[in-house]
Amino acid sequence: MRKLLLLIICTLCFTGIWATETEATPPTHASQSASSIEQAAQAYAQKDYIKAAQLYASLLNTPAVKQDKAQKAALYYNLGNAHYRTKNFPQAVWAYQSALRLNPADKDALHNLQLTQSKLQDQFDEPANSFFVLGFRNIVTLMSANAWGGWAIALLLLACVACFLFKLAASMWVRKIAFSVSCIAFVCTLAACLFAYTENNNYYNPTQAVTLQSENTFSNPSVTSKPIKELHEGVLLNIEQSQPDGWMQVALPDGTECWLKSNKLLMLKDF
Fold first, then answer.
1. Average of pLDDT values for 212-239?
2. Rg of the chain taking only CA atoms, in angstroms
3. Is 138 contained in some domain?
């Protein structure tokens, strides 16, 4: 009986350690990238924000950075800071939102995005979210999709071990504990899978864009339909659907859905 309890404790410790290790530290970068990052930081410190923005943008296209999600998010954040300093607010919104797509838990990027949006001509009241929606969002952004996937595998392993003990244990109370652990672990596995799916969907969702100039929006995909609102530069849009003739159905920050036709949108990349 003591051996069974010891096995359960060891399994819990193993799964917790294994899942924690899925949050690996960022890999070491090439000396060339490190030198370029230092040059960009030096240009920013010297208030040469245009040069800093150019250097940060060029770094985002290097192979070493493309494979490093954490550093890519940091570079987008720094790029947003450089654009903000030059009052290039549309590019700043694009860069901060790109950083948040890579790292939704980045509170500094979120704060700077909101600060930048407060400088724009168009102001929106975002739709109120319920306590449960906000709680779910906060839990999802605690870890990356890979980390949630690691927890899902670890919890599933724990559920399997508990089921195995349930079948082998002779003591009734040990069987009850094993059954409870297996049920809880299985439910937590499903929850971790849901969190991983949601976080992964946020990461790969390419349907966002930022306006670079004034845009007219309509109730239908036609210039003869009812006008909805004139948008100015820097508005972050969710693109619901696109048509071959160039019309796009978009959702504004306040949830309003409308249509616009433009080739002057700054699309957020599909990472």
1. 91
2. 24
3. no
Q: Answer whether residue 249 is part of any domain.
A: yes
Q: Which residues are paired to 209 by β-bridges?
A: 237, 267
pLDDT mean across residues, the chain: 81
124 three-class SS: coil
8 A C-beta contact, residue 24 and residue 60: no
Task: Using the 3D structure, point to which of 117, 133, 158 is the last residue of a domain.
Answer: 117
Same structural domain for residues 47 and 181?
no
Q: What is the CATH number of the domain that holds 226?
A: 2.30.30.40
Residue 268 pLDDT grade (very low, low, confident, very high; cuts 50, 70, 90): confident
Is the pLDDT reported for residue 25 higher than 50? Answer: no
Q: Could you tell me the CA-to-CA distances from 12 to 2, 147, 154, 159, 243 in Å, in that order?
A: 15, 17, 9, 10, 52
What gap in Å lies between CA 42 and CA 57, rounded to an integer? 15
| 127: in domain | no
Which is it for the CA torsion 153, 154, 156, 161, positive or negative? positive
Q: In whole angstroms, give the CA distance from residue 125 to residue 17.
A: 43
Q: CA distances (Å), 62 to each of 39, 92, 186, in order? A: 15, 21, 42
pLDDT at 26: 39
pLDDT tens digits, one per residue of 46-73? 999 999 999 999 998 888 777 778 889 9
Domain residues for the domain of 10 are 2-22+143-204
194 and 158 within one domain: yes
Q: pTM above 0.85?
A: no
Q: What are phi and psi of 103, to 5 degrees?
A: -140, 85
153, 183: one domain: yes
Q: Residues 48, 71: one domain?
A: yes
Phi then psi for residue 196, to 5 deg, are -65, -40
